[in-house]
Each structure stands twice: as structure tokens, then as C-alpha cells.
Amino acid sequence: MIKVDAVLFLAANICRSFEETRYYLNGVFIQPHPEKGVLLTATDGHRLICIHDENGECASAKIVNIDAKAIDQKALDSYRKEMAVDKQKEEPKVDIVIDEAGIVSVGTYRSIRPCFVDGTYPDWRAVLKPVLAGARDQKYAPANFNNRYLADFGKVGAVLSPDGNKSVALRVVSFGDGNPALVRFGNMDHVFAILMPVRAGTSNEFPIWMKPVLEPAPAPVLAPAQPEPAPEPKRDAPKPRAKARKRPAARRAIAKRKPSRPAKKAAKRRAA
Q1: CATH code for 2-195?
Q2: DSSP-assigned letters across all residues of the chain
């Protein structure tokens, strides 16, 4: 028999795979914890989540595929709000019970077919080795991540939050573009996640168009005043040429006057 917290199962179920080719990832892997309770693990090859249910029970490891609609999350949220009014009441808890045949019982819901996935779940602990090595050596480095997976982790935090808070803080500890990153959820020690980075050409600096905003151009340096050049000596203006004197109009008139008749007669007598 398997018995786990329904809320914890819902949170892990967000990160399972839906691919038909890797059918063995289409469910939550439930296995006994070495000391107490059970571990709920789910992955789709790009992200992985592991939750510790210390009150869970599990005889042997199984891959469990349950329709999320079978667990009424809205009813759980309303029940949590009612319980939050009275602080003396314990945290509401709804269990998923799975019998040996794989039949699921959640409250009044009972499945009509087995929920077990026939397959071998991969060794998910191997993914943690580079994360442990990077954390031990403190080789932290920036990386790029798929925004949809980060949004899904936000949904996980909202499901796990005792008061239904949808603004749970996420801490992403990155070890570079080639290594998986560790994701922790604010004030929740019973859950962690692993996220694989993606390749992108994002720089670690501000875009180039921010440079003139962050570093305005320095004020122009004024050059020392140069002494004014000595004025050139003024040259005397050339004297205007004297205009040619015109002959009096009377003389020109006399010179052009024709001799009179008596003068012509006197000239003829002298010639005779």
C-alpha cells in the first residue's frame, strides 16, 4: 500500500513528463525514504523535483500516474483558508491511498483502473552529482533558463505554500551554462528542484544603448584663451585719379565756327 499527501503529490505532478516515447517518466516516482516517510520525484528530462513526505508510507517503489483532476485543488485551498482562521487547528491533510492493485482513493474519489506505470525509473540521483560538486567548490556562474519551467516552479511554490501564497520566493543557484542548477523554495526545506540551463546569446552586462545613460559624456574641456593677434597696420587708401580737364565749351564752339562771307571775299582779293 502507498499513502502520500495529496498536496505534495500535486506539486510533484507538475514536473512530470507527458511524452509517449518516454512513458516511464509519465508519473511521479514514489519510493521509501531510508529513514522516514517517502520521496516523491518527477522529471521530464529538463527539470526535476524531489519532495520528502515524512508521514508517507510506501512498501516498494512505484511509478504512479494519477489524473490531477481527481484531486480537487480548489476544495483543498478553501479548506486551508478556513483552517487558517483558527490557528489552533492542525494543518489540513488529505491523503492519497493506493492499494496493491493500483486503485487510487482520494476522499470520495476511487479510480476504476490501476495507476501504476510499468517501467524502470532512471537513477535521478546521478543528476545531483554536478550540483553537489559545484556547491562544494562554490563555483557559481550565471546561466540562462527556460521561462516556462521557472513559471512552473512558481506554481509548485503556490501549491506547497501553507497559506496558499502565490508569491513564494525562488532561489536559483547556478553553476554555469553546462551544469544543472539548484532551485530552492522560500522557507520550505522538504522540497528542492533541479533545472537544466539553455543556450542563449545573452550577455552579462547592460545593453550597449545603456552606456550613454549610465556613463554620460564628460563636459568639454575649454582650451586656454589665446592672445589676440596684433592688428595689422592700416594702409593709406589710394588717391583717386584726377579727371581730365575738359576744354571750355566756348572754345570748342569757336574752333568749329565757319568763316563768314566778308572774310571769304577778302581772301579772294588777296589771292588776285
Answers
A1: 3.10.150.10
A2: -EEEEHHHHHHHHTT----STTGGGSSEEEEE-SSSSEEEEEE-SSEEEEEEETT-EESS-EEE---GGGS-HHHHHHHHHHHHHSTTSPPP--EEEE-TT--EEETTEE-SS--B--S----GGGGHHHHHHHHHHT--B--B--HHHHHHHHHHHHHH-TT--S---EEEE-B-TTS-EEEEETTEEEEEEEE--B-----SS--GGGHHHHSPPPPPPPPPPPPPPPPPPPPPPPPPPPPPPPPPHHHHHHHTPPPPHHHHHHHHHHH-
